[in-house]
Amino acid sequence: MAEQTIVEALLLGIIEGLTEFIPVSSTAHVLLAGHFLGFESTGKTFEVLIQLGAILAILSVYSARLLRIATNFPSDGKTQRFVAGVLLAFLPAAVAGALAHNFIKTVLFESPLLICIVLIVGGVILLVVDRLPLKPFYTDVTDYPLSLCFRIGLFQCLALIPGTSRSGATIVGALLMGTDKRSAAEFSFFLAMPTMTGAFALDLFKNRDILTADDATIIAIGFVAAFIIAVFVVRYLLDYVSRHGFWLFAWWRIAIGAAGLAGLLLVG
C-alpha cells in the first residue's frame, strides 16, 4: 500500500468527521477531495464505510442520553413516541436508498459537476431559510409529532443526491415545518444513527466480495480520523447553531461548490 494512499485516507477521514454533522454535505466534500487527489476506492466503499466513525462519535457524546432513553423506553410513552418518530423518519430514505443504491454509486457519485452545482444551490437555499422570520412551535425533539418526523424523513431523501447534505436537508425541512434551529440540528443527529448505520450495512453487504485487506486498512484509517474529528463537532455544534444559525455553512457550501467548478474547468 502506497504511503500516499494512507495520507489521502487520513485526510479524507478528517474531512468526513469535520463535515458529516454540519449542513455542507460530507459526501460531496469527500468525493470532490478524492476526485482532485486521484483517490480511488473499491466500489466507492471508502466514502460510505468511514461514516461509521461519525456514527460512533454520536454514540460516544450522547451515551448518557441514549442510556436514559433505553432505560425509560419500556415504561415512558414520551420516550416511546420519540424513538418511533426517529425510526419513522428513517424509513423513506432507507427504502429509496436501497432501491436506488446502484444508480447512486455508479452515476451520482461519479458526477463531480452535479455535486458542485448541488452544493451551490443548497447553500443559497440554506442562506434564504436561515434568514426567514420563522416562528418555532417545537423546541424539544422529544415533543416532535410522528407526522412531523415522517415529513422530515421525506426531506432526508433529498440527501441521496451527493452535495445535498443529509443534515442540511433534514434541518431545512424541520425549520420550514416549525422547529427551532437547535432542536432541528439535534434531531438530525439522532436520525443519523439508523440512517448511516443502514447505509454502512447495505454498502458493506453489496461489496463484501470485492474488498481486500488493503481496502480494510485504508477504511480503518479514515474511520478513526472521522471518529476523532466528529466527536469535537458533535460536542460544540448545537451551541454554535443556537447562537449563530447556519449562514456560515451556507457560504461554506457556495465557496466549496464554486472552487470545485473552477477546479473542474482548470484540470477536469
List keywords for this structure.
mainly alpha; single chain; 268 residues; 0% strand
Shape descriptor reads globular
**Biggest β-sheet strands, sense, barrel:** none
Cα distance, first to last residue? 26 Å
Could you report the average pLDDT, rounded to the nearest whole number? 90
Transmembrane segments: 48-70, 82-100, 112-132, 144-164, 184-205, 217-238, 250-267
Keywords: Antibiotic resistance, Cell membrane, Cell shape, Cell wall biogenesis/degradation, Hydrolase, Membrane, Peptidoglycan synthesis, Transmembrane, Transmembrane helix
GO cellular component, one term: plasma membrane
Pfam family, one: BacA
Describe what this molecule looks like in 3D.
One of its GO terms (cellular component) is plasma membrane. It comes from Oricola cellulosilytica. It is a single chain. The radius of gyration is 18 Å and the shape is globular. The mean pLDDT is 90. It has one domain (3-267). The two termini are 26 Å apart. The chain has 13 helices and no strands. The longest helix has 32 residues, at 213-244. The protein is mainly alpha-helical and 268 residues long.
